[in-house]
Give the backbone structure.
Amino acid sequence: MDFSLWEILKHIPIQSIFLQFWPAWVFLLAIFAFKCLLDLLDLEIKNWGIRRRFKKGEAWRSNRDLLRWLRGMKPTEFEEYIADLFSRLGYKTEAVGGSHDQGIDVIAKKGGITHYIQCKKFITSKVPVGAVRDFYGSLADHLANGKGYFITTNKFTLEASQFAEDKPIELIDGFELVRLIRTAKKDKKPYQSSDETAESCPLCGNALVLRNGKYGEFLGCSNYPKCKYTVKKE
């Protein structure tokens, strides 16, 4: 006579087996919980060590020395530093680096909005428009209502700055980066983009940002390109 698996299982005293070996189950569960606790503790210790090293490096440095210190970092250290900096500015961050496709080094979240950051030092040259264009192209499948941040310890070429003017990208050069570091160290207030205003878009409610276009300055929605509201700056 054929028996289904369910029929066979119904005749196995599972409850009695569990009760008989419950000390072993409790022991295994305790080991699993202890392992999870150790992993969490190890992560916290690592993050504490990173913050301590970075804060020590920031201390008692002129702006020029601070930039020189940043340029001396390895690429992965620079990415971790930017992730830590944005966490001190009110974001929940994750340094993804080479594990993430298309040049996105840090993911930063705040207020339910996800932003993407690329960290490139460009020690001996300015950031060319091609690098910014490639970064913008990599964001096409990621950006919803957030923005991209391209962060460098150097400067951006004029063409790169012009390319980013009407796009949801904020370019942060070495001097702006130093300003962010001083802001985070001084009062730890949540970071507001340098071009972000206190006004809200009447169509979608997102912040309006100051832009420069062919005909001068104007206010545009930070949710661009999903929302294309603009108004001329008075």
Q: What stands out?
A: Residues 188-192 have pLDDT under 50 and may be disordered.
